[in-house]
Amino acid sequence: MKLSREIEIDRPIDEVFTFVADARNDVSWCPKVRSVSLVSGVGGESKYAVVHKPVPWLPSREMQMNCVWFDEPHRIEWREEDGTDVFRVTYELEDLGTGRTRFRQRSDAELGAAGWLHPIYKAGIGRDIARQLRKLKKLLEKAD
After folding, report:
1. Averaged pLDDT for residues 86-91
2. pTM above 0.85, yes or no
């Protein structure tokens, strides 16, 4: 399952990249993320332990989040695995000039849920990504 959403943020590309490259900031813009701890590494070598709650009526899950590609300030790729689902998430950043950045999130998901649930999950995950990008925009544009 592949999903892609993007948003323009009124902040320079370096600032946006620095913020999203540290997954510990995810708790401030990804509502389903409960906590993030750095396990090891920095930049392209970083590994995090994450607690998230992807499905409202089910318990929280622990997830490993590893950086697999790091091209500052343009691209970060993550591999996220919680024992049920695997997500390969790519953040692509484009400098639009005058302090503006296009931020695109692409997600490729392998879900553990039954196949007949995948269209429902895809719609929900797409809404979640759009919501978190709006929250990221609001958070970063407010920062000074």
Report:
1. 96
2. yes
